[in-house]
Automatic annotation (TrEMBL):
Residues 8-25 have a biased composition (Pro residues). Residues 36-95 form the HTH tetR-type domain. Residues 1-34 are annotated as: Disordered. InterPro entries: Homeodomain-like_sf (IPR009057), HTH-type_TetR-like_transc_reg (IPR050109), HTH_TetR (IPR001647), Tet_transcr_reg_TetR-rel_C_sf (IPR036271), TetR_SbtR-like_C (IPR049445). Transmembrane segments: none annotated. The keyword Transmembrane helix does not apply. One of its GO terms (molecular function) is transcription cis-regulatory region binding. This is Putative TetR family transcriptional regulator. Keywords: DNA-binding, Transcription, Transcription regulation. Signal peptide: none annotated. It comes from Actinacidiphila reveromycinica. Residues 58-77 bind DNA. PANTHER family: HTH-TYPE TRANSCRIPTIONAL REGULATOR BETI (PTHR30055:SF234), HTH-TYPE TRANSCRIPTIONAL REGULATOR RUTR (PTHR30055). Gene3D superfamilies: Tetracycline Repressor, domain 2.
Amino acid sequence: MSDADADPAPPPVPDPVPDPAPAPAPRRRASRADALRNRDKLVAAARAAFTASGEAAPLEAIAREAGVGIGTLYRNFPTREALVEAVYAAELDDVTDSAPRLLERSAPADALRAWMRRYAAFVATKRGMAEVLRAGWDSGRIATPDTRRRIGAAVGTLLARGAEDGTIRGDVAADDLTVMLLGIFLTAATGDGQEQADRLIDLVMDALRPQPDA
């Protein structure tokens, strides 16, 4: 048989294609989730520390309370000012967002009372960071938040719902109540703390109830 009559050689069998390497995206997502959790823990620990000890609370103690190293703290917040700004922003978000949440599960008057207690805690935390915040706002290093408008909107929502169901007077301006509460809680912070704040909240709630016709 001639070479021309011979069967052609079979084509070479290609090497098997290896399975693709697993995508690293899940690991990246997990790492990002861990980083966000660490940041949240640092903000929570700093909030407690600044409220209890003021803005000079040791950063090492804050990191230790959050369960992370000091390097993790500095990666998230390069300066004490950055940490104070983050705590204030988180507190402002929480106190303003809490008004509709409280109204979902409580009667308007009860929601207003509970919100006042939350606002008292907000004022106490802000008081512990006052000097750093003021310096940052004055210099422009910390963005000036729209605190008064946002707090006033939360108070206005609570007052409006109370007026609708007849448990809160309808002639109270949200800004007036906000200013009064701020003065009360700043003063109470120098006295016997939450116990005095609770007594003052009782007085405010009495004043907010509709008065019977004479």
